[in-house]
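Sequence only, no structure available. Ideas?
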Amino acid sequence: MNRKRNIAKTAAACLLCTAVLVTAACGAEAVNRNLITEEAGEQRIVNLFSPMEKTEANAVNIARSAADKTVIMAEEKLGVRVDYVTYTAEDYQDKTYDDVSLDRARNNMDDIYLLNPDVIKVLGEEDLLMDLSGLDCAENLREVVKTANVVNGRLVAVPQEVVAYGLFINKDMFDRYELELPETPEEFLECCRVFKENGIETPVGANRWWLETFVFAQAYADLYNGGNTEEEIEALNSGESRYSDYMRPGFEFLQEMIDKGYIDAEKACVSEAIEGEGPDFLSQKTPIVMAYWGAANAETAYGKPDFNMLVIGFPSNRGRMPVMAMTGFGIGAEAEHAEDALKTLDIMLSDEALQVYAETNKVISPSQNVAVECIPALKPLNDRIQSDVYVLGANANMKLEQWGNTCLIVRKLLGGATVGECMAEFDRLQDETLGK
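Reply:
I predicted one. Tokens follow.
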């Protein structure tokens, strides 16, 4: 049970914290409340549970988040009222957002839920989420979205954005030492060697959440881009193939970076995302960090560097590889207001609404028909994504949850565990998941 809490905490902190509409992902003080008081009459209500907040029922539109704008569209077109049930967090000491999401969905407390990938997987396997494949918006989804959110043949969740992770590069520092942008793990290590030999103490800025992106890029480059995705996942789910065989090269790569001082394992273990490595990157003390797409647009992250910044994919045997993950909206299988919830979500996730959302937040849309012009720094990463070159860091089709488990095992490596011990943990988890 404690391990499940830790995995949920990790996934919540890694994924929901990247979404613009999140106030916080997990913590001690739960504030579950409807922020709009029900008026007298027969108004149709849809309850939505998520970390986002609507401060006032009649707030001016420009003060609301991109997600709120899509909710407003549904309210106006359908004549419904969406009541938010929120979870506001203060710290990491008690129930996580995932814990609360699971509890509320299992007790049929809401209609629509914003969920992390591991919770989507659990609730989908428990048949507690409706099949959304019949919605009009489902016809326009990118294949990556369908791949990540289909459980037992049913589309159980749909996101408003696809979160892409990449390497944030100080191109000026690469040019200074006449370095080409790396494609493969070997080329990446060579860049780090040159930086280290020229006095750059820590070439790669890291935190305790996102080093698994290196692992995913190397582990699953062939699985997602080799034409046999379904067959390989089926072999993993049956136990015929071992996750440890996929993961080993990425962990050996991280161990080499630790051994050679290219990352500071001790600092990474205690650093929060961006807060830990961000200052050194922005002050040009370190040339490489890893982060998500939206961080390139956010002034509070890397949106205004004093140097030429590029965002590229992670090194793999297939070149620079974006790592993709996503939260998603699901509807309870026994939702009280199921019909209106389905109609509401269909409008919130329509191309019209997703265009508004994408333009507001400058993100990758789950719809293949919606695109926004990205800033020049993101073009290298975006070019790969638009060419359908990527790996998934979370996939509901895999019986073993990926993002949270891999993050925790990477943390074991940072804490001194051997690669062999980390692989043994993957084997143990796979056997436990498959009931062996």
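The radius of gyration is 21 Å.
Hope that gets you unstuck.
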